[in-house]
Amino acid sequence: MHILFIEDDAIETMKLDRTVAKLEFKNQITEAKNGEQALEFLRSEEALPDIIFLDLNMPRMSGIEFLQILKEDPALRYLPTIVLTTSENRSDLLECYKIGIAGYIIKPLKYGDYENKIKKVIEYWEVNELVKA
Amino acid sequence: MSNKEVEILKRALERQKKARLEAEHILEQKSSELYHQVTLLKEENERLENSISEKNSELDGIFVNIIDPYVVMNIMGEVIRMNPAARDFLGVDHNKEKVSLMEFVHPEYMNYTMESFKILYESGVLKNYKAKIILKDKTEKYVHINASLVRNKKGVPVAAQGIIRDITQENEIKKLLADQKNKLKASEHRLATLVSNLHTGVLLEDEHQQVALSNTMFGEMFELKAKLAEKGKLASSDHLEAGEQIFKDPHTFRSRINEILDEQKLVLSEELETLEGQVFKRDYVPIFSEDIYKGHLWSYTDITVQKNYRNNLEKQKEKYSSIIANMNLGLVELDKDNCIIFVNKSFCEMSGYTQEELLGESVFEISIYQDDDEIVNQLERRKQGASDSYEVKVKTKNGEPAFWLISAAPRYNDTGNVIGSIGIHLDVTKQKNLELQKEQLLKELEESNTGLQEYAHIVTHDLKSPLRSISALATWLNEDYNDVLDENGVKNLTLMQEKVTAMDKLIDGILKYSTVTSDTLKDTAVDINTVIQDIKDIIYIPEHVEVRCKQKLPILKVDNTKIHQLFQNFLSNAVVNIDKAKGLVEIDAKERPTHWEFSIKDNGVGIPEEYHQKIFKIFQSVGNNERSTGIGLSIVKKIIDIYEGEVWLDSEIGVGTTFYFTIKK
């Protein structure tokens, strides 16, 4: 499965990489440091990812702004986007679901819990039929 | 026979022959004479006949030429002759049918008609017979007949002739006149009644100063009722004498009367005051007929009430005028065309314009009122008779903006029609500015509140993210370098994880505390029993602790999330602080007049009294529990404050603690 991971924090990226590396099936991770980079990638000649993991708190373009642009794009709007955030702000959660997301995962404090959650999410999407570009 | 005889016979025959011839001759002569006579007679006869017919036709012409109907009847009353006018009038023709004049007579006039016939028969003439007749077409007519008797040569009456005149119209006019007369009489009578019952005392005197008429009111006013009843009529002197008795200045009364009578000129509305304080108004009206003085009319009216009323009215008016002039409210009166017809001093001060600048101006031309639409709308409502209060933005003469509160009402004339409007103006600029300021502040506060909440979320995120990284890194150190780490190293990493956890909880608490505000409340009916059950499912309850409700709890109209937070904090606190082998947390509720009182009782360690107040302050943790952040109870306090309740506790060290709190119904 090809995952586009949009996250500015290096350690968060390490966390995901480490988690994914432990999984049985191999997954391809494309990293983007922010929304602009992610859009640039999505609009390039490269193959589209299967799902997107999106952090909300990012410099310059916030996760919600990215999400809005994504959902307005006739081609990209079908990409399942899972929000990965520490924000328990209810208004953020509502806003994301309003725009359209495929999941809202709150990053737990403990790495063990994190691994657990991510594993479940990836496994869930692995059993799903995905929109192949 | 002898010759002689024959001779004799012959001579005799001869004689006879001669005689016969002679006779024949005479006869012939006579018959010719007769013939001549007959012819003459014939001629005469013819002439006579002609002359008769001539006379007849002459008469016929006369009949035709008589405009009034002319009828000749026999003694039986049957028509034997009638002219065309009679035929037209009666609608019958005696040549075609038998016409009896008696058949026309109206039954009411039958007797009179018989008598009239008698008179005619006896005296030979009938004059001025007037009767009602009914024609063939049932119309009724009044007729006037003059008739005369016709006698034959022997002087025996054989017929009667008469001329009929249609006097129906005349009769109607007469009737009308009679009616009018009656009406006039009735109106005269009414007038007399009116005069006698008039609220004005009336005395009518003729040119000789004799009283012609006086009414009841005059008697009452001049205290002459007794005299009037006694004598039935008043004298001119009664007027003067009684007047001297009742009026304040008797001498002037008499002299003035004499003066007026001398001048014989109209005098109106002279006021006289009686000794009893009444005020009478006197009018003197001289009466002239064709420039000749015929008398005069005195009339007195009691105007005491009107006079007092007018005085009162004037006093009231003065009072209100001075109020209006001196009040601190601006007053404006507009006419029908919305032009200013009155302003008071305050309005001039409020607007900065002088009275001269304002009077006569249309409210749309002076640049005071800034909201024309509102003014148009309001003035339209005035025209429909509605009163209203409204605020307008205005600009004073020196250009300063202001807000006025206008209470306006329509103005009516005596007949109840709207003739404009009146508006009372209160300068509410200060209040309005304060209001606007308040609105602005509220808006700013709201914004800053939202901003603060956002800020809290961002800060927590920014604080939590590094914690997650630290936690991950520590975990990895433990995993990846397990073989090189000694016991102490592992312990330190574990401690590090614990501190990170504590820090995370603290940040969560601060976030929760800072987001408890009243402006995000959504009050719905919340069943507290369900809330407790939900919390029991969520929080960690040690095996040895039992949480139970002493009775069924009420349903409150509160914000679901907040009430959850409230009970969750109390219950979490209660269950973790139990040192007994068998823990028990009991929830109870009591209804008070204005509030619900809840209690949460545990058999835990208890809280020393010196901390009872402190524990509700933020960051004050009194337990030995490392995980306690000291924020929980301050969140509780904040929520209870929102619902206008109170929180307090009973506690005994080693026995347990009971928290009480109230929530406004």
Task: Describe the protein.
The complex is a heterodimer of chains A (133) and B (665). Chain A is an alpha/beta fold. Helices cover 43% and strands 17% of the residues of chain A. Chain A has a single domain (2-125), classed as Rossmann fold, CATH 3.40.50.2300. Chain A has 5 helices and 5 strands; from the N terminus they run βαβαβαβαβα. In chain A, β4, α4 (90-99) and β5 form a beta-alpha-beta unit. The longest helix of chain A has 17 residues, at 111-127. The radius of gyration of chain A is 14 Å and the shape is globular. The model of chain A has no long low-confidence stretch (mean pLDDT 90). Chain B is an alpha+beta fold. Chain B folds into 6 domains: 66-166, Beta-Lactamase (2-Layer Sandwich); 171-195; 198-307, PAS domain (Beta-Lactamase, 2-Layer Sandwich); 327-427, Beta-Lactamase (2-Layer Sandwich), CATH 3.30.450; 435-501, no CATH class; 520-664, Histidine kinase-like ATPase, C-terminal domain (Heat Shock Protein 90, 2-Layer Sandwich), CATH 3.30.565. Chain B has helices at residues 3-65, 84-90, 110-123, 168-197, 216-221, 225-231, 236-246, 250-263, 304-326, 345-351, 355-358, 372-383, 429-480, 487-515, 528-538, 560-576, 632-642; strands at residues 70-74, 79-82, 125-134, 140-151, 157-166, 200-206, 211-214, 267-273, 279-289, 292-302, 330-335, 340-343, 388-395, 401-412, 418-427, 523-527, 545-549, 555-559, 583-591, 595-602, 647-652, 656-664. In chain B, strands 2-1-5-4-3 form a 5-stranded antiparallel beta sheet, sandwiched between helices. Chain B starts with a helix and ends with a strand. The mean pLDDT of chain B is 84.
